[in-house]
């Protein structure tokens, strides 16, 4: 792992020169628009980076974007990787290892998710304050390299409390409907049945998605503070469950994205 990280980092440093990112950003499904607010210095395709997995989804660009946002040097993953694409957990979290090795000090993660909480409506935002991992393996499974992190990393505060509080304050000041809650991570790519949505709500979930948690586990393993936010693009309410419609989900993400971008941008500016 250390050797493959080193190879990727050396390649990227040759491309970006003296640029040293301090903030890492992962942009989820339908949420790549934040890049428009970044003063881009370098844009590098995943496919050109040694050891980097390639996003297989047509609505994920698959680029690393280096630039400045609100005066902060950032690197954004425009398009993330998912377990359901066929990659291992170690592969889909490899980019987070690389961003850490490039020197980021904080990780911001976004995703599109389905609401499980009837008080959280389609188009709302939810800052993640905890998660339930229902994916079949951990990205930390296997031999542990102590240079990357401890064998048994603590997960009592996987999402930074100060960043959560500040994010909620920004949302309130900007009159943006933004909740906080628990994110359930499932494998996908199939959506959930009525019984599964009911189960996820019973065990304490407020939203459900197919990403984010592996990246958060790896970030915590390396000691990176994390802030994560979901755009709620659909509603998994068993009593009135509607058939899945990808076009509607992408449209909802597109409409809600400016609100999410506003919170992330202002929050990053406070660092």
CATH topology label: Rossmann fold
User: How many domain regions?
Assistant: 1
Q: How is the main sheet built?
A: 5 strands, mixed, barrel
Report how far apart the termini are. Answer: 30 Å
Number of strands: 9
Query: Based on helices, strands and strand pairing, what is the structural class?
Result: alpha/beta
Helix content: 25-40%
Low-pLDDT parts are: none
CATH homologous superfamily annotation: Nucleoside phosphorylase domain
Numbering strands along the chain, what is their spatial order in the largest sheet? 5-8-7-6-9
CATH structural architecture: 3-Layer(aba) Sandwich
Round the Cα radius of gyration to an integer and report it. 18 Å
Count of DSSP-assigned helices: 6
What descriptive keywords fit this protein?
single chain; 271 residues; 5-stranded mixed beta barrel; 6 helices; 31% helix
Describe the structure.
By secondary structure, the protein is α/β, with parallel strands linked by helices. The protein has one domain (2-269): Nucleoside phosphorylase domain (Rossmann fold, 3-Layer(aba) Sandwich). It is built from 6 helices and 9 strands. Strands 5-8-7-6-9 form a 5-stranded mixed β-barrel. Helix 1 packs across helix 2 (89-102), helix 2 packs across helix 5 (213-221) and helix 3 packs across helix 6 (246-269). It is globular and about 55 Å long. One of its GO terms (cellular component) is cytoplasm. This is Purine nucleoside phosphorylase. Residues 23-268 form the Nucleoside phosphorylase domain. Pathway: Purine metabolism; purine nucleoside salvage.
């Amino acid at each position: 792992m250390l050797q493959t990280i080193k190879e990727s980092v050396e390649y990227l440093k040759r491309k970006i020169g003296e640029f040293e990112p301090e903030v890492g950003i992962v942009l989820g499904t339908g949420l790549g628009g934040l890049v428009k607010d970044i003063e881009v210095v370098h844009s590098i395709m995943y496919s050109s980076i040694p050891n980097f997995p390639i996003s297989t989804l047509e609505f994920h660009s698959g680029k690393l974007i280096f630039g400045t946002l609100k005066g902060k040097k950032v690197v954004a993953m425009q398009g993330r990787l998912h377990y359901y694409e066929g990659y291992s957990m170690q592969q889909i979290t490899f980019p987070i290892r690389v961003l850490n090795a490039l020197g980021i000090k904080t990780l911001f993660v976004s995703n599109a998710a389905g609401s499980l909480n009837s008080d959280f409506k389609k188009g709302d935002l939810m800052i993640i304050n905890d998660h339930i991992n229902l994916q079949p393996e951990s990205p930390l499974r296997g031999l542990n390299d102590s240079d990357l992190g401890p064998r048994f990393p603590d997960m009592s505060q996987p999402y930074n409390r100060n960043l959560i509080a500040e994010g909620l304050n920004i949302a309130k000041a900007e009159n943006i409907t933004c909740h906080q809650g628990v994110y359930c991570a499932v494998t996908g790519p199939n959506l959930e049945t009525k019984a599964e949505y009911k189960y996820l709500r019973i065990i304490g979930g407020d939203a459900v998605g197919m990403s984010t948690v592996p990246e958060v586990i790896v970030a915590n393993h390396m000691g990176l503070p994390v802030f994560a936010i979901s755009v709620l693009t659909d509603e998994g309410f068993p009593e009135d469950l509607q058939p899945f419609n990808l076009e509607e989900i992408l449209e909802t993400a597109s409409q809600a994205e400016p609100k999410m971008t506003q919170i992330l941008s202002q929050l990053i500016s406070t660092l």
